[in-house]
Amino acid sequence: MGMEELKRRLGQVSDLYAAAGLMSWDQETQMPGEAARVRGLQMATLAGLAHELFTDARTAELLAAAGEGQGETDAAIVRVTRREHDKATRLPTAFVEEATRARNEAHHAWLEARKRSDFATFAPHLEKMMDLARREADLLGYEEHPYDALLDQYEPGMRAAQVQPVFADLRDRTLPLLRRIVAAGDAADYSVLTRPFAPEAQKAFAWRVAGEAFGLRSTFARQDESAHPFQTNFSRSDLRITTRVEDYWPACLFGTWHETGHAMYERGVAPHWERTPVSRGASLGVHESQSRMFENLLARSRPFWERYFPQLAEVASEVTAGLDPEALYRAVNRVHPSLIRVEADEITYNFHIMLRFELELALLEGRLKVQDLPEAWNAKMQEYLGLTPPDDAQGVLQDIHWSSGLIGYFPTYTLGNLLSVQLLEAAKQDPSIAAGIKQADYAPLLAWLAQNVHQYGRSLTPTQLTQQATGQGLTADPYIAYLHQKYGEIYGLEAEG
Amino acid sequence: MGMEELKRRLGQVSDLYAAAGLMSWDQETQMPGEAARVRGLQMATLAGLAHELFTDARTAELLAAAGEGQGETDAAIVRVTRREHDKATRLPTAFVEEATRARNEAHHAWLEARKRSDFATFAPHLEKMMDLARREADLLGYEEHPYDALLDQYEPGMRAAQVQPVFADLRDRTLPLLRRIVAAGDAADYSVLTRPFAPEAQKAFAWRVAGEAFGLRSTFARQDESAHPFQTNFSRSDLRITTRVEDYWPACLFGTWHETGHAMYERGVAPHWERTPVSRGASLGVHESQSRMFENLLARSRPFWERYFPQLAEVASEVTAGLDPEALYRAVNRVHPSLIRVEADEITYNFHIMLRFELELALLEGRLKVQDLPEAWNAKMQEYLGLTPPDDAQGVLQDIHWSSGLIGYFPTYTLGNLLSVQLLEAAKQDPSIAAGIKQADYAPLLAWLAQNVHQYGRSLTPTQLTQQATGQGLTADPYIAYLHQKYGEIYGLEAEG
User: Fold this and answer.
1) Pick from A312, A315, B79, B264: most CB atoms within 10 A?
2) How many domains does chain B have?
3) A444 and A432 in contact (C-beta within 8 Å)?
C-alpha cells in the first residue's frame, strides 16, 4: 500500500518535471518571444512544486517504510529514489534559492562578458560560483575530494581521482598522434563541408537517416530547430530532438544523429519504470556514450557513407558533385586544432575537456585564482593544441557551464567518448553485430544496446553498467586504439610502437 | 502580507493550469501519437494538483482574511477568486472523480456511436451525463432552476428564464426571414468557395490578415494546424490559435479570424491581473461575441472584401479569377439550411443552438426521455430548418459537448452572436469607429474593445459588462436588425413591417 502511494507521488513529481520540460522545449522551439518573462515564472513554479513534493515529509515516511522494495522493479525504484531524495534534502531551501539567484545573475553577466570579451565583468560571478560549489560539496558530503560531490551529481559514483589517471593516459597517448596528424596536413578537400545544401533538405535528410539507420520514428519522436541543439523527452514515447542549420552542413547532420543517440537511450528504458526516477539514463557519461557512438563511431564511419552517399546525392547533388563516398568520409573526419570545443573533432575534443577539468579542479581547490584563469586557459591551449585565443570570448568565456554553476560536468563528455568505443568493441564480439556495422546495418547493434545499456535506466550505476556490459571497468585503451587506427589510416601515418 | 501569499498561491495555480494548457495544445498540434497515454496521466496530475492547491484549507484561510481587498485590482482578485473557490469547493472530490471517469467513458462511447451512427450505444452514457448534471446542479446550488447552476459555470449570472424569451424573440423574428431567403434562392456562385487554394497559402493569408486587420502578431501569438480549431493561451503574451485546412477554403480563413477574436480578448486583459483568476474573459458568451464579431461582422462585410480582395488575388488567383469583391462578399454570405452546426451560416446557426438548448432543458427536467431524443431532435430540425438528418451521426450525435458533460454550454454561442452586434452598434456611436469600419480599418474599433471589453477580464460579470459598454442589458434587437438589413439586401428582399 505504501509502495503504491510512493509510486503515485513519484508519478506526480515526474509529471511536474515533464511539464517543466515541455515548457522549456516550447520556449526554445515554438514560443513567441514576448512570452519569456511569464514563462520563466511558470517554469520556476513547476520546478519548485516538484522539488517540494519530492522532498516533503510524506515522501521521507514512504521511503522509510518501503524497506528494500519487493521484487527487482520496486527495489530499483526505492534504491534510486532514496539516493536522489537523500541528495535533494541535503541542500537547504535557503541555499538553493541563493544559488538559483546567483546563477541567474552569473549567467546574465556571462552573456554580457562574452559579448564584449571582457573577463573582468564575469570574474566576481565566477568567484561566487566557486564559493557556492565548495559549499554545495560540503552540504552533499564526500570522502576524498569536494570535486567528487559535484561530479557525482552527473556521474554517480565517479571520483576525480579516477578521472585523473584515465585522462592522463589519454593525453599522453593521443597528443603525439595529434602532432603527427597536424604535421601530415590535409587528407581531403574540406571545402565540400560548406557547399550549398538547402536548410529544409539538410533537416529532412538528417531526420530520415535518424529513422532508417538508428530507429528514431515520428510515431514517438519529433525534430525541431533551436539555437542550441538538445534532446529532451516527456516519456519514452515522446522524444524531442532539435537541430541547428548552418552553412557548415555537418552541424545539422551529425548534430541530429548525436541527439538521436540520446533519444534512443531514453526510448529504450524499460517501460515498468515509467514516471519514476529510474526512468532516465544512468549518467551524463553513459548518455554521451550513446550520442557519440551514433554521431562519430557510426555516422563518421566509412561503411555509413558507402551506404548513405547515394541518398545524400539525391537530395544534395551540389554537395556530392565530383565526390565519391571515400572523399566524403575523409572530409567529415578532418582533424584540426581549433579554439572552440563544440566545433572540435574526435581527437582534439578531449583536450578541450581535459583543460577545463584541470582548471576547474584547481579553482575549486584554490590553487588557481579566478583572476589568473584566462592566462592559465591560454597557456593550456598552447600546450595542448598549439593555439592562443585572440580574445577571451574565444577562450575562457566560450562555454555556458561555469556561468550556470555546472562545476564537475565537463569530464562526462570525455568519459562518454571513452565509453562509446568500449561499448562498441564489446558489442562487436557478436559476429552478426560486427557484420552489420560493416554494412551500416545497425539493427543488431541497436538490439544489443537496448539489452545491455538502455533498458536499465538508472537502476545500475555507470560503473555497474560498464562492468556488466563490457566485462571491465572504464578504460581509455579501446578509445585510444580506435583513434590511432582510424586517423593513422586516414592521414597515412605509419604505426608507432 | 496575507494578500501577497494569496497572490503567490494564485500564481502557482495559474502556472499549473498554464502547463496543463500547454500540454493540451502540444497534444493537438505537435505531440507524437504514441505519447497520448502518458500525456493523459500528466495532464490529470497537473489539473489535480491545481485543483488541490486552489481548494485547500490555506487558500480558504487567506481568502477569509483578505476581506474586500485593498484597491480595485486586489478587490477584483478577491471577489473573483472567492466566487470560483466557492464553486470549486462545493463539488466533493468523490463526485469530481466519478464525473471525470464517467465523462471519459461517455466520450469514448460517443466517438464509437458517432462512427457507427448508433445512438443506442451512447444513450446510457447520456443518461449518466444527465444524472451527473442534476447532481452537480444540486451541489452547486441555484434559486430558480437546476439549469441555472450549470449555465452559470460558463455564463456567470445568466439564467434559463432570461435566455428563453430572448431566444423566442430571435426565433420568431428570424424564422420568417430565413424562409424568404430560402424561397429567393442563390444570390451568388458558391462554387468559388471550393476553388483550388494551396493549404500553405490559405494559412499564410489568414494569418497575415489576422495581423494586419485585427492586430494579432507573431511576437506574442502563433498559428498551428489541428483537427478542430481552437484558441488557448498561457499568458497574455503567449496566445495560440489553430486552424484546419479544407477544400472549402473559408473554413481556414474565417476560422482563423474567429480564433483571432478569442485571442485578442485575452491579449487585452489588464496586465495587473496576470496569473490570477481575473485574467480571463468574462464568460463564454462575451468571448464568443469577440470571435463572431471578427469572423462575421467584420470579415464577412463588404468593406472587408473591398480592402482584402486584391491581397487574396495575389496569393490565390485561381480563387478570384473572374470575380470582383462584391461577388466574393456574396459568396461568403450564403444562407443555406444544413444539418451540421459548425458549418452553419449566420442565420441558421442560432436555430441549431435553440434546438440544443430546448432539448437539453427538457432532458434535465425529465420532460424528455433520452430514448426519445433522436426523434425530438429530428422533429425540431424539420420545424426550424426543414431538414431531416439521414442518420444520427449527422443529427443528435454530431456534437462533442454532451458526451463531455457540457450541459448548459450551448446557449453561450448564440448569446455571443447577439452581444457581438450589440457591442458593435455601441462602438459605432463613435464616428471615427464607424468611419474606420467602412474602410476595413479596425484600429479605432480595436481600441474601443480593449477599453470597454477586454481590459476588464473577469472583474465584471457579463451583465455588468454589457450594461456598462452598451448602456443596456442583453437584447436580441440589434442582432435581428443586422440580419434583416444584411441578408435582405443580399437576397433582394423587400423590407417587411
Assistant:
1) B264
2) 2
3) yes
Q: Is residue A98 part of a domain?
A: no
Q: How far is B206 from chain A (nearest CA, A)?
A: 18
Share of chain A above pLDDT 90, in %: 96
Residue B413 within any structural domain of the chain: yes
Instruction: Quick: pLDDT tens for A325-372.
Output: 999 999 999 999 999 999 999 999 999 999 999 999 999 999 999 999
Which candidate in B136, B155, B259, B266 is catalytic?
B259
Residue B112 lies in a domain: no
Instruction: Say whether both A150 and A69 belong to one domain.
Output: no
Interface test with B, best of A9, A27, A41, A207 (most B CBs within 10 A): A41
CB-CB under 8 Å, B19 with A23: yes
Q: How many residues does chain A have?
A: 497
If asked whether residues B69 and B137 sit together in one domain, one would say: no
Looking at the complex, report in whole angstroms how far the Cα of residue B8 sits from the nearest Cα belonging to chain A: 10
Residue range B376-401, pLDDT digits in tens: 999 999 999 999 999 999 999 999 99
* A448 and A407 both lie in a single domain: yes
A365 shares its domain with A495: yes
Domain match, A65 and A155 both: no
Report which of B409, B373, B139 is spatially closest to residue B288, judged by C-alpha positions.
B409
Choosing from A90, A107, A126, the residue where a domain stops is A90
Question: pTM of the predicted model, to two decimals?
Answer: 0.95
| Look-up of cell digits 536499465 | A456
Answer yes or no: is A100 within a domain.
no
Residue B84 and residue B140 share a domain:
no
Q: Please state the rounded mean pLDDT for residues A434-456.
A: 98
Does the structure show a pLDDT above 70 at A423?
A: yes
What is the rounded distance in angstroms from the CA atom of residue A211 to the CA atom of residue A145? 43
Element (H, E) at B169: helix B160-184
Interchain CB distance below 8 Å, A35 and B274: no
Nearest Cα residue in chain A from B12: A45
B→A interface, C-beta within 8 Å: 11-12, 15-16, 18-20, 22-23, 26, 30-35, 37-39, 41-42, 45-46, 49, 218-222, 234-235, 237-239, 274-275
Q: Are B49 and A12 within 8 A, CB to CB?
A: yes
Reported as a pLDDT band with limits 50, 70 and 90, residue A1 is: low
How distant, in Å, are the alpha carbons of A55, B206, B211 from that of B442?
54, 16, 11
Q: Which amino acid is at B415?
A: L
pLDDT digits (tens, 9 = 90+) for B446-482: 999 999 999 999 999 999 999 999 999 999 999 999 9
Q: Which CATH number does the domain housing residue B225 bear?
A: 1.10.1370.30
Sequence-ordered alpha helix ranges (H) in B293-392 = 302-315, 317-320, 325-331, 349-365, 373-385
Residue-wise pLDDT for B55-114, tens only, equals: 999 999 999 999 998 999 999 999 999 999 999 999 988 898 899 889 989 998 999 999
| Yes or no, beta carbons of B238 and A46 under 8 Å apart | no
Can A259 be counted among the known catalytic residues?
yes
Q: Considering only CB atoms, which chain B residues are within 8 Å of A32?
A: 218-222, 237-239
Q: Which residues contact B444 (CB under 8 A, 6 or more apart)?
A: B430, B432, B433, B435, B436
Cα A96 from Cα A77, distance rounded (Å): 25
How many whole angstroms separate alpha carbon A163 and alpha carbon B458? 60
Instruction: Give buried/exposed letters for B102-132 (b at 16+ CB in 10 A, else e).
Output: bbeebbebbeebbeeebbebbbebbebbbeb
What is the span of the domain harbouring residue A185?
Answer: 118-497
DSSP string, A195-241: S---HHHHHHHHHHHHHHHH---TTTEEEEE-SS--EEEEETTEEEE
Do residue B380 and residue B335 come from a single domain?
yes
Mean pLDDT of chain B: 96
Chain B residues within an 8 Å CB radius of A235: 35, 38-39, 42
